Amino acid sequence: MNSLELGKVLWQDHLRDLFLAIDPERALNTVLDVLEQSASNPMSLELSRYLYCSTAANTPVTIGNKNCHIVWRNRVGIPAGFTKYAFGLRALNEMGVGAIEIGTCTPEPQPGNPQPRFFIERRGNGDLILVNRFGFNHTGIRKVVHSVQSLWDATDQGKFAATLIWSLGPNKKTVDQYEESRDLSLIVNDILYMVVEVMSVLRAGDAFQFNIASPNTPGPRDLFEHFGKLINGIIEQTRMLARIYRRPSPPWIIKLSPDMSSEQMRQVAQAATCYEEVVALEGFNTTADDNYKAQYGVAEKGGMSGDPLRILADNKLITLHEIVMEEKLDIDIIAVGGIMTPNQAVDRLLIGERVKAVQLFSGIIKNGFSLIPETLEAIANISV
Question: What number of H helices and E strands is found in the chain?
């Protein structure tokens, strides 16, 4: 049994049952706690590298446009929602991940929606269905910045190969105020507050992500209709901050929802490409469409992901890529949502030339961290 097979057995025969036997949120936090604790143990980090780091880990990919870009260590990343509080970053880096999203972060601490709010079901056909209604539960941006600063204090930043992407979203109270006043500056101010906090630990090559895709926080998805004004405020204010900090204006990624219409995707994509700092569109990880969920017998409120999301995410990605090509938009795409196997990751990359990377979450819960090296090796066997 080689190291990859051993890592798969450890997960599928032991750890995966945690998510099915106890509260899935508690199980995820337990896994992240173990990964975080391993950061102080060189032998544990070496074990992560031995079990899960592919020889194809160091295959850089450039994501962006002709004027601005980011370079991932490779084409496989971890999306927001997995490590909300920056736990386990060193272990994930040792596993050879190309990029890691932190968050989604909020300016101030907030509890999110009441528990239980994360549900996992394994069907008889082998499908894994996940539903969450977290609602941007978070410790607040300052605590996460402190965690990353501690990481940099203990680690040579240059040896931390994974790109860090800071996923940002507004506080619920801000969204409530926006619902009353329709003052977009409230949302912009929340995002800019976090940009200021992160600047002290933001490395050259790291990026921000603006999350308007959450299915569980009333308000953000409605911002699609006002995205042009919203992104203008965020980018212009970020440029000003960058001048103050005497550094380049940082790159941005815009996270999209699979529940957007084609016209909404077109409007957001067009507005995003007005700013060179917006290097990528990311989609499509969670659907709140009750009609689509009902096709799979899912009545639980919240966003559904896992195996059933694959067809919807595939189709939406095809549409988004067609929009980018038809409109001749200079922007890349990051694919996420329902990617459960290496072949499914390869299929996403083959949708079109502007699809540059994939992200794994539900697939890791189903198949373990061995999915990371397996996916990298599958990608290495094709030309994309």
Answer: 15, 13
- Residue given tokens 């590298």 in the structure block: 49
3-class DSSP state for residue 15? helix
How far is 206 from 203, CA to CA, in rounded Å? 5
Instruction: For residue 378, report the phi and psi dihedrals to the nearest 5 degrees.
Output: -65, -40
Kindly write down the DSSP assignment for every residue of 224-251, as one continuous string. GGGHHHHHHHHHHHHHHHHHHHTSPPPP
- Give Cα 123 distance to the centre of its chain: 25
Element housing 268 (H / E) = helix 262-272
**pLDDT for the residue 235:** 97
Query: Do residues 361 and 336 touch, judged by C-beta distance below 8 A?
Result: yes
Query: From CA 109, how far away is CA 146, in angstroms rounded?
Result: 14
SS3 279: strand
Least Cα distance to 216 among 157, 141, 286, 119 occurs for 286
Burial class from Cβ neighbours inside 10 Å (0-12, 13-18, 19+) for residue 121 reads middle
pTM of the model: 0.95
Instruction: Find the largest Cα–Cα distance for the chain.
Output: 61
Give per-residue pLDDT as tens, 208-258. Answer: 999 877 776 665 556 777 899 999 999 999 999 999 999 999 999 999 999
13: confidence class by pLDDT, cuts 50, 70, 90: low
Tallying the residues shown for the chain, one arrives at 384
- Domains parsed from the chain with CATH numbers: 3-380 (3.20.20.70)
Tokens coding 217? 């926080």
Instruction: Count CB atoms within 10 A of the CB of residue 270.
Output: 16
**Which amino acid type is present at position 102?**
I
Q: What is the pLDDT of residues 274-309, one digit of tens each?
A: 999 999 999 999 999 999 999 999 999 999 999 999
Identity of residue 107: P
Adjacent-strand bridge partners of 101: 165
At which residue do the structure tokens 């200021």 appear? 196
Task: Identify the residue whose tokens are 């996420």.
Answer: 336
Q: CA 70 to CA 255: how far, in whole Å?
A: 16
Bond preceding residue 87 cis, omega within 30 of 0 = no
* Mean pLDDT on 47-66: 95
